[in-house]
Amino acid sequence: MPRLYINLRLLEKNTKEVLSLCSKHNVELIGVTKVSLGDPQVAQCIRNAGVNIIGESRVENIKRMVKSGINRPFMMLRIPAISQLEEIVDLCDYILVSELKTVEAIEEICKNAGKSVDLIYMVDVGDLREGVWYKQAEEEICKAVKICKTSRIIGVGTNLGCYGGILPTNENMAKLVYIRDKIEQRTNTHLPIVSGGNTAALKLLEHSDLPEGVNQYRVGEAIMLGTDVTNNRKIDWLEQKTVVLEAEVIEMKTKPSVPEGQSGLDAFGRQPVFVDKGLRKRAILALGEQDTVPKHLKPLDKNAEVIHASSDHTIVDITEVQRQINVGDTMKFTLSYAALLRAMTCPHVEKIYRGE
Fold it and tell me: Which residues sit opposite 218 in a β-bridge?
């Protein structure tokens, strides 16, 4: 069974570093646990580092944390399904929304339950994922503010990088602040939160280029991996070996580097491309696409190269690796966000926690 080694000490260290940067710029940090499947030990690290609000995208993950003793407050990050609203209102203190119908349903639930919940209305400033398009945002959110009597619209938010790959900039963040200000003027309502950031937006803080008024970030990747996939970088002031994947070698053979015979698609409908390097020494691992995203693994063995993978096998070129690797040995890798997400979700990958 492949293993994920999760270093809780380094996760807490990364959280403290991100929190420190945010605090210097008067930005509240929401610690996001969704890539870890709402892992309670990850959530506890985030809380131990001084972060108050845990952000999650799935009700099941919040239930998992609550059952393990992780208490509120929670923020529901994914735009909520109407069918799950009663549970979400019961479990969460903050909900990201983008539909008037959803706001109306939340308001009705809050009235009937005699409770209140805080809502952040999402605005699409260019990435084309969730949120009302910024040119229509002022009108729609003003209507939402009027709907809320028991629940409250407390601010606006946006998400960048996750779908269209659009980078956070001073300009698109400023649009969000401008929209918030116009809504406040029109509704005579204070909206204290401008939730403008995720890991991709940390660069704006690093370069002191965040517009005044943006005061909340929702960060997961930087905490978990010390990376920023949208900007294609390692964050040099964070730890990258927070999570390491280990898999066993089940075959060792020297073979040609290009397959023989008529070529079609692989088992996943992909057209593999191979470079002819002559005979190469290859390790096959007990690890595949069902467990992680093999092409997003970086071997800790210098000069090793992940070549390709099927559902259950990952082939690694180890011709130029200095150490002797035999059948039964293991190889270790750092992971991308996508690779970690699949590995955390897969029941065939064992999760091992370390505190050193």
Answer: 30
207 pLDDT band (50/70/90 cuts)?
very high
Distance, in Å, from the CA atom of 12 to the CA atom of 242, rounded to the nearest integer, reads: 10
Report the C-alpha gap between 60 and 58 in whole angstroms.
5
> What's the average model confidence in pLDDT over 255-280?
89
**Which residues does 182 contact at the CB level (< 8 Å), separation at least 6?**
138
Tokens, residue 320: 């130029």
Instruction: Note if 16 is an active site residue.
Output: no
The two beta strands, 3-7 and 279-286, are: unpaired
Q: How far is 3 from 181, CA to CA, in rounded Å?
A: 49
Counting every residue, how long is the chain? Answer: 356
pLDDT grade for 271, boundaries at 50, 70 and 90: confident
Question: Cα(119)–Cα(309) distance, rounded to whole angstroms?
Answer: 43
Question: Does 188 score more than 80 pLDDT?
Answer: yes
Is the entire prediction scored with pTM above 0.85? yes
3 state SS of 5? strand
Distance CA 278, CA 258 (A): 8
Can you count the helices (H) and strands (E) in the chain? 10, 19
Q: Which long-range contacts (CB under 8 A, 24 or more apart) does 320-325 make?
A: 325/249, 325/252, 325/283, 325/301
Assess contact for 219 and 32: CB atoms under 8 A: yes
Tell me the backbone φ, ψ of residue 175, rounded to 5 degrees.
-60, -40
CA atoms 182, 187, 191, 195: torsion sign: negative
Task: Give the pLDDT band (50/70/90) at residue 355.
Answer: confident
Q: How confident is the model at residue 151 (pLDDT cuts 50, 70, 90)?
A: very high
Query: 34, 63, 146, 241: which one is catalytic?
Result: 34
Going by the DSSP 8-state scheme, the letter that residue 298 receives in this structure is E
Residues 6+ apart with CB under 8 A from 283: 249, 251, 252, 315, 316, 318, 325, 331
C-alpha distance from residue 133 to each of 138, 288, 306, 330 (Å): 10, 39, 41, 49
Confidence category of residue 265, pLDDT binned at 50, 70, 90: confident
